[in-house]
Amino acid sequence: MTLSAASRLRAVERKLLYWVSAYLLIGAGTLYLWKPLLPALVVLAGALIAMIGFWILHLFWCRFNFAADPFLLPLVAFFSSTSLIFLYRLNPAYAERQFVWLMTGLFALWVVTRYFLHYRLLAEYKYIYALAGIIGLLLPIFFGIEQGGAKSWLDLGFFQVQPSEFVKILLVLFLAAFLAENRLALAEGTQRIWGITLPAPQEWGPMLIMWGISLLLLIFQKDLGAALIYFTTFLAMVYASTARVAYVCLGGALFLAGAAAAYFLFEHVRLRIGIWLDPWQQAEAAGYQVVQSLFALTAGGITGTGLGAGMPQFIPAVHTDFIFAAIAEELGLAGSLGLIMIYMLFVYRGFLIALAAKDDFACLLAAGFTALMGLQTFIIIAGVIKLLPLTGITLPFLSYGGSSLVANFIILGFLLNISHEVQITSGRS
Amino acid sequence: MAGILLTILRYLFLFLLYAFLFVVVRYMFRGLHKEHSFITVPDTFGEGGARETNILPGSRDKSVPKAGARLVVLASPNSRLGKGTSFYLGEKVTLGRGEHNDVVIPDPFSSHEHAVIYMHGHQYWVQDLGSLNGTYLNEVRLDRPTVLADGDCLRIGNVTFQFVRWAYEVESGQ
Questions:
Q1: A367: pLDDT confidence band, cut at 50, 70 and 90?
Q2: Rounded Cα gap, residues A66 and B63, in angstroms
Q3: Which ipTM did the prediction report?
């Protein structure tokens, strides 16, 4: 039963991977024709090797009857293909480095699906994650280097690491383990104060402390984007575990208070809000990035200028935070809506995995990772199209950035492991 | 020539993006269909008899209750309260999300103390206990204690029960 279920799932995955391969090769072919003067065979070779990487992983899973969700790998292969194509188009040097990081990410995914199948054991060490997470966030404050206004990078000689990307995973692991243990107490409350049932401090204290420290550290590093993601993921997980709207309202009120405080305390927050409200006033200075991004979105029109035919290079940081603007320019409204829909399908599969999960820890872990992914996508795309104030974070799997990519592949590995477990146990019963 | 080919490839690239989206959605839809039938197969198997019977307080001390009745779960999204489970009703049965209830309804739309079913004058009455999302009897929201009749559907959140009076009880009891 499980054997045939696994092979049926992998067959779906194989068919979807054929489509992704065609997509990547057509994209690489377009880029080859676009500038055939370059040593452009690199792009075709790179595309082929990247695809072979995904295929090897797929064949490995077939071999070991891995019964995980068949959609996530093709979806991520699609994001990675788009990432490689657009980074090559923007600056081949970035694409080459992203290629190396993609290989590292695939290797990390292989490690997670091979050696962390019994992820449930991880629930035992939750306070170690809390400690490791806090250390991970503290390090850049003392030894870090500043890039793009945020002091959140560690220099490790020939490459740089952003610990906050990995601490995301630790935060979700900690919260899932903690909430799974104290879910009922938090949901029902044990004390009655002013007619509202509230849980005792020992049930919410450690969680609030861990979360508060990480927020403070991120604010200290001026990494507002990461702070926002941590905050919203935290609220999503608390709501998923307790189903109490009161906590979300309380969190929202706290957020508003915190945002107001940050607005009056920090100069760079005031600047960001000012740009968001009216970028045109300072279109040549601070608002330049957002204004150029809006120009790019307009230039794209419905079907876009075509791959390689746009001018996204005017947008600062177009290869990381603003890659969505480049995609929207060259693939147009059609392409960017398609991309957003594919992100939504990823989130949909993630929540399906959470719903099917066998126990609270697995369910909260899947829901937390999925919420993290979805919120991150929403926040950065909303920043690029000026729906929300801009916060510098990466678009998952698409932006240039090694730490982010590898961390996202680890998250993907956990989602796959959870769905594998569901398939195996439902097949047996 | 190369220019035309480039244009074609550019459109082909966009087309493949949507082709991939379409294929993924189609497979997901097919999978949903399959999962759905996968879920219903074991349930129709268990429909012949109650999979699980829970005897509730009140019915145990009397060997033959005066008016016996049971609640059968018709639909429940949560596996903790499986479809086909039946609860034999005693003098008084409480329903809700809290673990102390006689019938625990693990549904997010259920209140902790959601409803109560009690016997009064040889008839079963159902009363909503001021729940947030209401108790629905045959899809009408309860606003006062109401008498239950055989075959009535009682819905709390996403969980639907059917109220069944024991057939032989009507004969032997009167």
A1: very high
A2: 53
A3: 0.86
CA atoms A263, A266, A271, A272: torsion sign: negative
Which tokens sit at A276?
A: 């968001």
Q: Write out chain B residues lying below 8 Å of A307, CB-based.
A: 9-10, 13
From CA A201, how far away is CA A282, in angstroms rounded? 48
The pTM for the full model equals: 0.75
Q: Is there a contact between A19 and B20 if contact means CB atoms under 8 Å apart?
A: yes
Contact B16 A26 (CB under 8 A): yes
Domain boundaries, chain A: 122-265
Interface test with B, best of A9, A10, A19 (most B CBs within 10 A): A19
Residue B41 has pLDDT above 50, yes or no: no
| A221 three-state secondary structure | coil
Give contacts of B112 with chain A, Cβ < 8 Å.
Answer: 188
Cα(B52)–Cα(B129) distance, integer angstroms: 27
What are the structural domain ranges in chain B?
Answer: 67-167
Strands B86-88, B159-165: parallel, antiparallel or unpaired by DSSP? unpaired
The CATH number fitting domain B67-167, selected from 3.40.50.2000, 3.40.50.12780, 2.60.40.1930, 2.60.200.20: 2.60.200.20
With the CA atoms of A89, A94, A97 and A103 taken in that order, what torsion angle do they form, in degrees rounded to the nearest 10? -40
The torsion defined by the Cα of A316, A371, A237 and A179, in degrees rounded to 10, comes to -110
Tokens (6 digits) for A192:
């009655």
Alpha carbons B130 and A191: distance in angstroms, whole number: 21
Average the pLDDT over each of A22-31, A38-47, A52-61, B57-66 and give the range with the smallest value.
B57-66
